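Task: encode each sequence below as structure tokens.

Item 1
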Amino acid sequence: MRRLPLIVLLVGGCAKPVVVETPAEMSEALAEVVIPPLPLWTHKYADTVEEQGVFLRISAVMARYGMTRLDAVEVQNHLRDQRRVDPQGDLQAQLDEAVARVRRGDRESGVDPAALAAARFVVVFDVDETLWDQSYRVERQGPCHDLAVRDGMEVRYIKTSPHWETAFEAVRGAGGKVAIFSANVDDRTLAGLRAWTWEDRPLTDHPDVLGVFTNSHLVLQDKAEGSRKAPVVEPSKDLRIFDEGLAKVILVDDNPWRTFQPTNLRLVAKLDADLMCDADADPVAQEARAGELARVAASIRDAAAWLDAHPEGTFRQAFLPFTWAGSLAVDTVAEATDHDWPAAMDWVREHPEVVPPQF
């Protein structure tokens, strides 16, 4: 990579050069599938282009290599892994290797496409501040953690969200599958999930967990893709990797900026270990947060019951009243008409077109 000064910005009467990162010269073939790096001031965690990493035009990868969206995102994952090890390596050679790995069936997420296709629906759970809080400090709060994971010479203490198992069991009981999608890095995420067991099996090895996705599975999207010309510039969880039509997948997440599909997002309050472990905290606040995943479980069961009664519908339609965008429509119908909330929920389910797919 190289840096080229592109513009001089006047700030407070003083001229200051603004340096924008641009990629090294690449072939026309590479330029068709590689998204140019964003200016570093837009990136929350990266201070260099190498830290920002390479993002691919997923639709272009799908078209060029005849791949599903899942496999195209797995190509990006393998490519980013290689770039972390050798950021100055031959990008085309690394891309070719990433494609070859996926063609061999090497999906780092562990997803079996046949199991994915057979699932009645998929509920994708975010990790940080949704399933667990790893900012917990045992020396500050005392022994309140649920997991202790060794990272080198240090031990990381993790508080898990109450009722997570209730939520997982609700998914399975209704014929669905769980997937886990963290925006965090591979090693920290996988180490924690291996230490976390469900029915005496690590989450990374449980048959009802389709797979684990991490930050290299996040995507950007060029404004040329999609009908509304809306670029995605925050690395995000694209739920189309689970279902291209978005009919049978939802995301449970505390961060609405990590997805661009608000009609498939069940937004939850952030898990706060300090709050949950503080003996002097407001009990109402503790109880409200402690019940988040129990309420998610109830919404999954409610949606599954509606779908049982309306087999011509989709899980997305059944779950729509509980999503970020759909709940706004339910509130509007209930407050503006004589519908009570259950009737407003059913009306929105019967008229899903009133909920815009994007804000």
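Item 2
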Amino acid sequence: MTILKPHSLIDYAKDMKAYYTDIFVLPLPPGHRFPMVKYKLLRERLISSGVMEPDDLIVPEAATDEDILRCHTPEYLHKLMTGTLSRKEEVRIGFPWTLEMVERSRRSSGATIRAAISALTEGTSANLAGGTHHAGRDFGAGFSVFCDAAIAARALQHRGLVEKVLVIDCDVHQGNGTADVCRDDPTIFTFSLHGERNFPFRKINGDLDIGLVEGTGDADYLSTLETALERVLSVFDPDLAIYQSGADPFVDDKLGKLALSKAGLAKRDRLVLSMLRNEDIPVAVTMGGGYAQNVDDVVDIHFETIRIAKSFCSVMA
């Protein structure tokens, strides 16, 4: 495991800002497998446990058309805004089209933008949702409408706040949408560590993609992740990282298959955040997927990710 060395961060802040969108409810039919309730449960647990103060949990602005159009085509955005997606396109997204779906997706991308901006001064910040990495330039897929990591990266670049952004994707599913949006863009490095024989079954390769076999446990996963991150950080020097954590590598996840324990996932988070801290790289954390039989397991994993992220929160030099 990486040993944290002295760094140039000058102070530690008690507070970390996190952005939430669970008040923008996406209406779903009964029995839908997407666990929308997890976001509200996560925020409530963060407050009740004392890990986060209510004043540090903030509702973000929605991503604007300008933000979205740096990553998605005008035709795709028009279809979403007018409700003219084809049946095939709607099925591919996995949500029934509603104006509420569009608004929530805008807010979730806005939350990643805000978390990324906060991270530049606090060291670490979080979106209590996000991680919509299956949305490509002209399509949505896999419960992803807009590609929030790419939208945030380009929003900050457009504002002159950063030049280079690293996207670290540890969701169990490969970040095909992020790879599609950021294809041929040398200023955004996309790294995905995922289950090889899992959705999406037709991958779109990013800068570094590592597919793992079913049943990969904690030890092999963490060793692979550390080696890969060392490789990435030796060739790419980002001004910001966006870390999609993901609760779905969990052993009891219905869509996962990588068999990580909760303790292993916590070690994953500490490893990623410590390696970024070691290089003085601010990081915005997003939640990604989680589909365990018991939604409380998903909330446990996301909660621990935020708790660990807060321990790394600091004022950047």
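Check on item 2: The longest helix spans residues 99-122. The two ends are 26 Å apart (CA to CA).
End of task.
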